[in-house]
Amino acid sequence: MPQHCTWIVRDEVEMPEAITEADFEKEALAFLEANAEPRKEAKATWGEGSDSMSIFPERTPEEDRADLEAARGWSRSRFDAGFGWITGPEEYGGRALDRSYQRLYDSLEARFDTPSQAVFGIGLGMIAPTILAHAIPEVRDLYLKGLYRGDIVACQLFSEPSSGSDLASLQTRAVKDGDEWVVNGQKVWTSGAHLSDIGEIICRTDPDVPKHKGLTGFVVDMHAPGVEVRPLRQMTGGAAFNEVFFTDVRIPDSHRLGDVNAGWGVALTTLMNERAAIGGGAGGVALGGMGTHRLIQLVQHYGKSKDPLVRQKLVDVLINYRVSSYNTLRAMAKINAGQLPGPELSIAKLSLTQNLMRVSELVSSVLGPKLVADSGEWGTYAWGEFLLSVPGMRVAGGTDEIMRNIVGERVLGLPKEPSPGKA
Ligand SMILES: Cc1cc2nc3c(=O)[nH]c(=O)nc-3n(C[C@H](O)[C@H](O)[C@H](O)COP(=O)(O)OP(=O)(O)OC[C@H]3O[C@@H](n4cnc5c(N)ncnc54)[C@H](O)[C@@H]3O)c2cc1C
After folding, report:
1. Which of 193-202, 247-256, 261-270, 337-346 has the lowest mean pLDDT?
2. Of 32, 124, 263, 320, which is most buried, counting CB atoms within 10 Å of its CB?
3. Does ligand 1 come within 6 angstroms of the Cβ of 383?
4. Does the beta carbon of 391 lie inside 6 Å of ligand 1?
5. How far, in Å, from the CA of 399 to the mean position of ligand 1?
6. Residues 309 and 290 in one domain
């Protein structure tokens, strides 16, 4: 199996004699009913409650901490009750059940009002699968349970000031010194670094070989001496991501992910999981449930529901949202069947961002100047945060252009883009 296939390793666990889905459902409902309140009707009335439509968290450091504590409280009780890592190997605290049990649990939990788990998104969606696939057993022991229990928050330390799309050109150096590696360099755009306990870092360990062949992945302690996290303020007002500086930071060799100079395969494991998380998850956050409902309410409230152009734009959004959710199901079906979905995830990410742009256009055409003038009118200016977040979504996890290159080359069979920097 090529190295980048190992990201589906979480399904490769030996199944114990499984509890029936009916018994599992009973057990899960008993836990949820004892620990959470049923969710109130999601379709709130226009003008009532919060009108926030932000995609990225716009929180103060105090709010960040309070959110983390709430998320952690829920995550711990869920894990301790046996619902924190339903598909995971038993040796790391999982239940080794099939994905259908996870889907069942998710659908049950969605009926209850529980704290957002967004702060654990990168750790669970990207870093934990990479640790499971590439770390030695001692390091899996050290971190996996903590990640799934919400004790540990993790971040992804890939991008650098001169290396984003061309990730393999990254320059942060790791030099071996006895049983340790000494890391020097700078990472940037690191989401959630300010809240993180560990990070997955890709470093250059051999500058004398072609660029993809001289990289190594590590798990780094974000509280280690020499790690400095500086927040970056984004145009929406919040500071959800950071610059991270490494000065003589020591990482034990045991915390290496995979072989020395095999970091490119490790990075691909993480990136495939990132596209699955963004394409499959954020679309729901942005447009599913409340988002779609709010959009329809907006059109109705401003008397535009009979305007043929607005109707056309609205239906376009709804159709594309539905089509991309089918594409995501196709990718998930491949994962369930033990195959590697490649281009489907790029299509999922691209169709998400294209639809976010459609939403932006629709909202702009309905609200006009109300978007930029804060008149205090409910459900107007708040959409500005959404619109200002869309460009970031088009860049995070691989830009639209890079996704198009992948689809062009791997799905349509077009000739490869010329890449002057390729070594
Ligand atoms: C909200 C957000 C969160 C992020 N979180 C993280 C994180 O947690 N950890 C992390 O490591 N990184 C993170 N990133 C960084 C992200 O991965 C990079 O921004 C992204 O990979 C693009 O790299 P770049 O910014 O260096 O742009 P560049 O690669 O310099 O691209 C600049 C422009 O050139 C285009 N371009 C580049 N190469 C090609 C090509 N071959 N063909 C056609 N066009 C091309 C791009 O599409 C883009 O329009 C985040 C970014 C955002 C916006």
Report:
1. 337-346
2. 263
3. no
4. no
5. 6
6. yes
Beta bridge partners of 190: 242
Phi and psi (nearest 5°) for 127?
Answer: -80, -45
Domain co-membership, 402 together with 330: yes
* Beta-bridge partners for 215: 204
Contact 82, 149 (CB under 8 A): no
Q: Which atom of ligand 1 is nearest to the CA of 392?
A: 53
CA 406 to centroid of ligand 1, rounded, Å: 15
Q: Which domain holds residue 368?
A: 266-411
Kindly state whether residues 287 and 407 are assigned to the same domain.
yes
Q: What is the mean pLDDT of residues 124-146?
A: 96
Confidence of residue 171 (pLDDT cuts 50, 70, 90): very high
How far, in Å, is the centroid of ligand 1 from the Cα of 162?
Answer: 10
Give the chain's mean pLDDT: 88
Who has greater pLDDT, 4 or 25? 25
Pocket test for ligand 1, best of 130, 169, 189 (most atoms within 8 A of CB): 189
Q: How high is the pLDDT of residue 9?
A: 39
Using the CB atoms, write b or e for 189-200: b if 16+ within 10 Å: bbbbbbbbbbbb
Ligand 1 centroid – CA 404 distance (Å) = 14
* Pair (348, 255) in one structural domain: no
In this prediction, residue 274 carries a pLDDT of: 82
Measured over the CA atoms of residue 265, residue 129, residue 118 and residue 109, the dihedral's sign is positive
- Asked if residue 75 has its Cβ within 6 Å of ligand 1, the reply is no
User: Ligand 1 in contact with 190 (CB < 6 A)?
Assistant: yes
| 81 falls within a domain | no
pTM value is 0.90
Write down which residue in 216, 244, 261 finishes a domain.
261
**Percent of the chain beyond pLDDT 70?**
90
Token pair for 302: 């401003």
Which of 272, 275, 262, 224 is closest to 134 using CA atoms? 262
Q: What pLDDT was estimated at residue 172? A: 98
Please determine, for residue 414, whether its predicted confidence score (pLDDT) is greater than 90.
yes
Residues 294, 407 within the same domain = yes
Q: Is the minimum distance from the CB of 12 to ligand 1 under 6 angstroms?
A: no
Q: Are residues 398 and 274 in the same domain?
A: yes
Q: Which atom of ligand 1 is nearest to the CA of 157?
A: 11
User: Is residue 239 a part of any domain in this protein?
Assistant: yes
Ligand 1 centre distance from Cα of residue 248 (Å): 27
Q: What is the DSSP letter of 163?
A: B
pLDDT confidence bin for 285, thresholds 50/70/90: very low
Residue spans of alpha helices (H) in 337-377? 343-367
In a shared domain, residues 350 and 255:
no
CA distance 295 to 304: 11
Q: Look at residues 212, 237, 261 and tell me which one is the last residue of a structural domain.
A: 261
Domain assignment present for residue 382? The answer is yes
